[in-house]
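Example 9 (inverse folding). The structure is encoded as follows.
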């Protein structure tokens, strides 16, 4: 009977996993539209493309409001239905993206677009903590980094889809936002079919008890703040907002950088980004699996992998920034790729992405491992807020650096931030074992309490 229940739970969990993957794909497709549309948007709103600061402010406010809703979603998800929170988020950002088709031209259009993107950020912020909390209860701890690797791939595919769609429509950017918005509305409604996974259902101490009918009734409360803070790794994993500076800067500037510095048109950049994203997806899966494999031997393995994946991309970014290749005007995609030096340019940034994408699954996996089931959404929301702050500040800082000192200087700042980021992982490496022992001790005590309760009910 227990084996049958486990198989049924695995099937339901697999379906839930597929649904949340799709939600992340189109959530990040929505967020990925802006980068390729920097010049078309500036031309539409201001009739010139020299000053990109106005779009930097859109990204900043969008991300700031996302941060606020992320914290609210995280705390709520540790007390109530995580699936319903995802539905609410999808409906909000789907609706405001769809409204972008009504954006007028000129500066009035900029104001309208600013408002819709800002409100869109509220919906986007609801999704991530709820999704990662759901997956934390769908997957065995020894496979979490791999599962979070798939979520990282979903986010990459979503951004790539947004890039490709936006790059292909050019001046017709309103249709891109409208299409992605409609898809997100449909997905939000379809998510109502997903069954909420029981909290703690995959923890070693609780799995069998929950299959026998016990319920993990613990929910987050204000007194748990002290317990969360007692995990010293949490402080460093949550506080590190510098880690997203490099990626956010590259994503914000890549189309303009490749056009202005290398004269590469959007179609060729999309082809290059396809290679880069595929490399990133492989990196997330490979290093996520490596973290899980190492975790069985040394519980610090996920942290070690994340640290390495932060340090080594610097080498390849230096090579990328040093490229002098220039694409002839009017070159087709095949002609651009045939220019000597183009492929080395693409492969160096692809190598950096391959390694750096190994950070995310091991970062999320570490956060899930060192926190109790009823704390994970809150902790991930706080960590995500710090990431959102980084995603807001990164493009804003880069926009000012680019305006004052040029695009090469803005992209060069990526190296400084990557180097600084490594320092945040060293304390985690020191504290992670103690934090894991603390969590398993609490879960063992709660399992004994749940066993007594189950016995009393049976008696």
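The amino acid assigned to each position is listed next.
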């Amino acid at each position: 009977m227990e084996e049958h229940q486990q198989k049924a739970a695995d099937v339901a969990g697999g379906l839930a996993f597929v649904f949340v993957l799709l939600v992340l794909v189109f959530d990040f497709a929505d967020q990925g539209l802006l980068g390729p549309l920097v010049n078309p948007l500036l031309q539409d709103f201001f009739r010139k493309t020299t000053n990109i600061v106005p779009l930097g402010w859109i990204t900043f406010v969008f991300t700031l409001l996302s941060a606020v809703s992320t914290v609210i979603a995280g705390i709520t998800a540790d007390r109530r239905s995580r699936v319903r929170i995802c539905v609410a988020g999808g409906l909000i950002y789907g609706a405001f993206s769809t409204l972008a088709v009504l954006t007028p031209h000129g500066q009035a259009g900029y104001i309208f677009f600013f408002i819709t993107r800002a409100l869109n950020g509220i919906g986007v912020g609801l999704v991530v903590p709820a999704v990662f909390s759901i997956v934390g209860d769908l997957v065995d701890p020894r496979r979490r980094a791999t599962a979070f690797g798939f979520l990282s791939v979903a986010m990459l595919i979503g951004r790539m889809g947004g890039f490709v769609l936006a790059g292909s429509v050019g001046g017709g950017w309103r249709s891109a936002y409208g299409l992605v918005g409609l898809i997100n509305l449909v997905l939000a409604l379809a998510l109502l079919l997903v069954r909420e996974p029981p909290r703690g259902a995959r923890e070693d101490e609780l799995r069998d008890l929950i299959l026998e009918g016990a319920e993990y009734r613990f929910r987050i409360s204000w007194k748990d703040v002290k317990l969360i803070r007692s995990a010293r790794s949490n402080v460093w994993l949550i506080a590190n907002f510098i880690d997203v500076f490099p990626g956010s800067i590259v994503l914000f500037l890549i189309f303009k950088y490749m056009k202005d510095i290398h004269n590469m048109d959007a179609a060729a950049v999309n082809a290059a980004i396809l290679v880069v994203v595929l490399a990133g997806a492989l990196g997330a899966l490979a290093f996520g699996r490596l973290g899980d494999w190492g975790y069985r031997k040394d519980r610090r393995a996920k942290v070690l992998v994340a640290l390495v994946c932060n340090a080594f991309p610097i080498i390849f970014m230096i090579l990328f920034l040093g490229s002098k290749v220039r694409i002839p005007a009017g070159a087709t995609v095949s002609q651009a790729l045939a220019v000597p030096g183009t492929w080395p340019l693409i492969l160096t940034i692809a190598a950096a992405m391959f390694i750096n994408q190994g950070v995310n699954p091991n970062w999320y996996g570490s956060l899930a491992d060192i926190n109790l089931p009823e704390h994970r959404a809150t902790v991930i929301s706080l960590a995500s807020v710090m990431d959102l702050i980084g995603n807001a500040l990164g493009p804003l800082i880069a926009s000012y650096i680019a305006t004052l000192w040029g695009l090469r200087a803005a992209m060069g700042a990526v190296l400084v931030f990557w180097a600084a980021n490594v320092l945040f992982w060293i304390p985690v490496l020191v504290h992670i074992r103690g934090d894991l022992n603390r969590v398993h001790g609490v879960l063992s005590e709660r399992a004994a309490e749940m066993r007594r309760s189950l016995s009393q009910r049976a008696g």
